[in-house]
Write a structure and sequence with these properties.
About 25% of the residues lie in helices and about 35% in strands. The protein is built from three helices and ten strands; from the N terminus they run E-E-E-E-H-E-E-E-H-H-E-E-E. Strand 3 and strand 4 form a beta hairpin. The two termini are about 15 Å apart.
C-alpha cells in the first residue's frame, strides 16, 4: 500500500488483511500501526491511498486507488481476518518454494498494535506483468 504526504512525498507500507465492508465498493485494510506510522499520517493528511493485491503463484495483480481514505481504530474480527489471510498467503508461498522460516517472518504480525484504513475504491488497474498492465479494471 502507498499514500502521499501533504507535501507530495510517497510513503509505502504493508497491510496484513483486507476486509470488504457492507457498503458496495468499500474496503478496510488492516495493518500494524507502529510499522506503518508514516502511511497512517499521510492518509490522515491527504485521504489518498493505493493498494496492490497479488497472487504469488500466478503474479496476477491489481491495484485500487482512493481519495477518501480514513484511519480507523481496531475492531473485533481483525485478528481472525489476519489469520485467514496469513494461512491463504502461506499456501501460495509454499507452492512456489518459500521456506517456512521466510513465510513465518513475512506473515508475522503484532495483533495487539493494529490500525485500519477504510476507503471507497475509486479506480482499479491491472498490475499483472504483460500487455494489459496498467489498464483500468472495474472497481
Amino acid at each position: 500500500m502507498a499514500s502521499r504526504t501533504a507535501g507530495g512525498h510517497a510513503v509505502v507500507g504493508r497491510a496484513h488483511a483486507a476486509i470488504p465492508m457492507a457498503e458496495p465498493g468499500r474496503l478496510l485494510i488492516v495493518l500494524q500501526a507502529h510499522a506503518n506510522a508514516e502511511v497512517l499520517r499521510a492518509v490522515t493528511e491527504t485521504g489518498s491511498i493505493a493498494v496492490v493485491f497479488t497472487q504469488p503463484t500466478t503474479h496476477r495483480s491489481f491495484q485500487v486507488k482512493a481519495a477518501d481514505a480514513v484511519v480507523t481504530p481496531p475492531a473485533v474480527g481483525w485478528r481472525e481476518a489476519i489469520e485467514r489471510h496469513a494461512r491463504a498467503f502461506a499456501l501460495e508461498l509454499r507452492e512456489i518454494g518459500f521456506t517456512e522460516t521466510f513465510i513465518g517472518a513475512y506473515n508475522a504480525c503484532d495483533a495487539d498494535r493494529l490500525a485500519g484504513i477504510t476507503f471507497t475504491c475509486a479506480s482499479g488497474f491491472d498490475q499483472a506483468p504483460g500487455p494489459h498492465a496498467g489498464e483500468p479494471v472495474p472497481t
